[in-house]
Amino acid sequence: MGTAKHTLKIMCRCRSPGPAEVSRPADKVARMTTPVLRATEWDGTSWDDPSDEKLHDLLADMNLTWRFVIVTRLDLEPADQHYMQVHLNDDLSYTIEYREGGPDRHFQAEVPRGHELLGLEPVARVLQDWSRRRPGWREALSWSPLSLP
User: Fold this and answer.
1) Residue 44: HSE in the Cβ half-sphere, 13 Å Cα cutoff
2) What is the pTM of this model?
3) CA dist list (Å): 3 to 6, 7, 8, 9, 62
4) Cis peptide before 149 (omega within 30 of 0)
5) From CA 49, how far away is CA 30, in angstroms rounded?
6) What are residue 139's DSSP bridge partners?
7) pLDDT for position 119
8) Is the torsion defined by CA of 26, 31, 32, 38 positive or negative?
């Protein structure tokens, strides 16, 4: 029996990149590097370097079954000790926690249930501002130290 020889022919339609493809926006370049943030939903689904819109959408998708979203800073040490977590309570209010290192730098704030359409906005703004290191997020809520058993 003879051996059959097969040749695979690959056709390529190449084109010159347009100006938009040559100079990439900063957010596309950032995705090619090590992520700085990771957002994780209750079921473990995660997104690296989520946009402000994605963070808002993740919070808007929370319900009494899917109650929390955690955004972790991946660029700070100690690892897994720099994060902000939003939890939806039974009464549809929110508990927000942030941690900056060790247990002595762990804080929480309560955000009461607001108007159905606007209730999420203050929570989303704090999470977005913290994620982007924008000023004002600490002053937006009344934070208190959190001590865990």
Assistant:
1) 0
2) 0.74
3) 10, 13, 16, 19, 60
4) no
5) 8
6) none
7) 72
8) positive
